[in-house]
C-alpha cells in the first residue's frame, strides 16, 4: 500500500496514524526529515524502523494522489479553474545519486544540478490550489552521448504533461482554457489538447519557432521565425505552424524588467474567440505555479528525504504533497497562508525552547 493510500484509508491500521504524524512533521520541521527525528518527538513510542518500513513499499502513483485530493478539488473547482503543469528541481547535492536523485538541467540557473526532478499539475482556481497530479522524473535508462554514459528518463516530460492534463479532463474537473509553459509548447501537446481533450490552451512559443503566415505558405514550405512576425502588441494574427494541422492565433507581448531589459513572449492559442486581453490574462495565470512550487520547497521539505532507496525517496515526495495540501485547505477555509502558518509554528517552537532553557537556569551574563 502506497503512502497516499494510507493517508486515504483512515483508521484501518496503525500506519494511518503514522503517515499523519510523518506528514505533520514535514510541515513543522525546520531540519532534516530523518526517521529518527520523528521517533524522538513522540517519546520513542514509534521506532524509526517503523517509519522506514512505512515509506519502503511500492511508490505511490498519481492516481493515489488524486484519490486523496479529490475532496479539496471538488470544493474549490470553478468554471474558469485550470490545471497548470510545471516542473521543479529541489537540490540535494551531498547525497549519493540513484534513479530519483541525479543530475538535471536547471533552466533557471542555466546549469546542471543534483536533485529530484518532478512535475505537478496544481489546479488553480479562485479559492485554492490543490495538486491534481504529480510525476517524479526517474532517470533509469542509460545512453551514450559524446562518448560518455549518461542517465535519462524513459518518458519525456511532454508526455507527462499530456497525461496529467488529460487525466484531469477524464476526471471531469471543471476547467477553462489551459495555460502552459514554453517547454510544453510542442506540437504533440497542441494536437492532444485540440483533438483529444477538446480543450484550448495558451502556450508561448520560442523566438526561433517556425511558422507560416498562410496555408499556401505552409504547403510551399515558406516559414518565418516567431520573432520575425510583424504584428502589433495588441492584435492577434492567424499563423500556421508546421507540425499542427490547424491554425493558431499569435500575439506578441512586451514586458519591462526591473533592470531595464525587455522580455518578449509569443503566446499562441487555437481558440479563435479569445481577444488579446483574454489571452494575456490566461497566460498570466501560469505564474501561480511558482507560488505552488515555492511553498512546496520551503514548507514541506521535499529535498530532505529519509533513507537512500528509490521507493523511500519517492514516497517521501508523495508525503510532501500531502503536507502541501493541508495548509492549502486551511488557507481555503480562511486561515493563514502557508508561510504565515510556518512562521506561527516557528515562533511557537522558539517560545517552547526559551521556556525549557529557563527551567535549566543557565548561567546569567551580567550587563
Structural class: alpha+beta
Order of adjacent strands in the largest pleated sheet: 9-10-17-14-13-11-12
Shape: elongated
The helix tally amounts to 12
The end-to-end distance, rounded to whole angstroms, is 60 Å
Order of helices and strands: HHHHHEEEEEEEEHEHEEHEEEEEEHHHH
Radius of gyration: 24 Å
Strand content: 15-25%
Please report the total strand number as a whole number: 17
Helix fraction? 25-40%
- The average pLDDT is 80
Low-confidence stretches: 9-15
The largest pleated sheet is described as: 7 strands, mixed
Task: Give keywords.
367 residues, alpha+beta, 12 helices, 17 strands, 19% strand
Description:
With 367 residues, the chain is an alpha+beta fold. It has helices at residues 3-8, 14-28, 35-39, 48-55, 62-76, 157-170, 187-196, 215-220, 276-284, 288-300, 310-332, 338-359; strands spanning 82-83, 86-88, 101-106, 111-116, 118-124, 131-136, 141-145, 148-152, 178-179, 201-205, 210-212, 224-225, 237-241, 248-250, 255-256, 262-263, 266-269. A seven-stranded mixed β-sheet has the order 9-10-17-14-13-11-12, sandwiched between helices. Strands 1, 2, 5 and 6 form a four-stranded antiparallel β-sheet that branches. The chain has a two-stranded antiparallel ribbon with strand order 3-4. A hairpin with a 6-residue loop joins strand 13 (237-241) and strand 14 (248-250). The model is unreliable at 9-15 (pLDDT under 50).
Blueprint (SSEs and pairs):
Elements: H1 3-8, H2 14-28, H3 35-39, H4 48-55, H5 62-76, E1 82-83, E2 86-88, E3 101-106, E4 111-116, E5 118-124, E6 131-136, E7 141-145, E8 148-152, H6 157-170, E9 178-179, H7 187-196, E10 201-205, E11 210-212, H8 215-220, E12 224-225, E13 237-241, E14 248-250, E15 255-256, E16 262-263, E17 266-269, H9 276-284, H10 288-300, H11 310-332, H12 338-359
Parallel strand pairs: 9-10
Antiparallel strand pairs: 1-5, 2-5, 3-4, 5-6, 7-8, 10-17, 11-12, 11-13, 13-14, 14-17, 15-16
Helix pairs in contact: 2-11, 5-11, 6-7, 10-11
Amino acid at each position: 500500500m502506497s503512502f497516499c493510500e494510507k493517508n486515504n484509508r483512515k483508521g484501518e491500521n496503525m500506519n494511518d496514524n503514522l503517515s499523519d504524524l510523518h506528514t505533520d512533521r514535514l510541515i513543522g520541521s525546520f531540519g532534516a526529515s530523518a526517521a529518527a527525528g520523528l521517533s524522538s518527538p513522540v517519546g520513542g513510542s514509534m521506532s524509526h524502523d517503523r517509519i522506514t518500513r512505512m515509506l519502503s513499499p511500492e511508490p505511490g502513483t498519481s492516481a493515489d494522489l488524486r484519490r486523496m485530493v479529490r475532496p479539496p478539488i471538488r470544493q474549490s473547482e470553478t468554471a474558469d479553474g485550470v490545471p497548470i503543469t510545471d516542473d521543479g528541481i529541489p537540490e540535494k547535492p551531498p547525497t549519493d545519486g540513484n534513479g530519483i536523485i541525479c543530475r538535471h538541467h536547471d533552466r533557471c540557473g542555466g546549469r546542471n544540478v543534483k536533485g529530484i526532478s518532478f512535475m505537478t499539475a496544481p489546479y488553480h482556481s479562485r479559492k485554492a490550489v490543490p495538486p491534481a497530479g504529480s510525476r517524479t522524473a526517474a532517470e533509469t535508462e542509460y545512453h551514450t552521448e559524446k562518448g560518455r554514459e549518461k542517465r535519462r528518463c524513459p518518458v519525456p516530460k511532454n508526455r507527462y504533461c499530456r497525461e496529467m492534463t488529460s487525466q484531469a479532463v477524464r476526471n471531469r474537473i471543471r476547467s477553462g482554457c489551459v495555460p502552459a509553459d514554453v517547454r510544453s509548447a510542442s506540437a504533440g501537446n497542441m494536437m492532444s489538447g485540440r483533438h483529444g481533450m477538446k480543450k484550448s490552451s495558451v502556450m508561448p512559443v520560442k523566438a526561433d519557432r517556425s511558422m507560416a503566415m498562410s496555408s499556401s505558405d505552409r504547403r510551399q514550405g515558406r516559414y518565418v521565425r516567431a520573432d520575425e512576425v510583424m504584428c502589433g502588441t495588441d492584435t492577434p494574427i492567424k499563423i500556421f505552424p508546421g507540425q499542427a494541422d490547424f491554425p493558431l492565433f499569435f500575439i506578441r507581448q512586451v514586458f519591462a524588467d526591473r533592470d531595464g531589459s525587455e522580455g518578449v513572449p509569443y503566446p499562441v492559442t487555437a481558440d479563435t474567440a479569445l481577444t488579446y486581453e483574454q489571452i494575456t490574462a490566461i497566460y498570466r495565470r501560469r505564474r501561480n505555479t511558482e507560488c505552488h512550487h515555492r511553498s512546496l520547497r520551503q514548507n514541506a521539505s521535499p529535498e530532505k528525504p529519509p533513507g537512500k532507496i528509490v521507493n523511500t525517496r519517492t514516497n517521501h515526495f508523495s508525503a510532501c504533497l500531502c503536507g502541501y495540501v493541508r495548509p492549502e485547505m486551511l488557507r481555503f477555509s480562511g486561515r493563514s497562508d502557508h508561510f504565515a502558518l510556518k512562521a506561527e509554528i516557528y515562533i511557537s517552537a522558539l517560545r517552547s525552547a526559551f521556556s525549557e532553557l529557563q527551567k535549566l537556569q543557565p548561567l546569567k551574563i551580567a550587563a
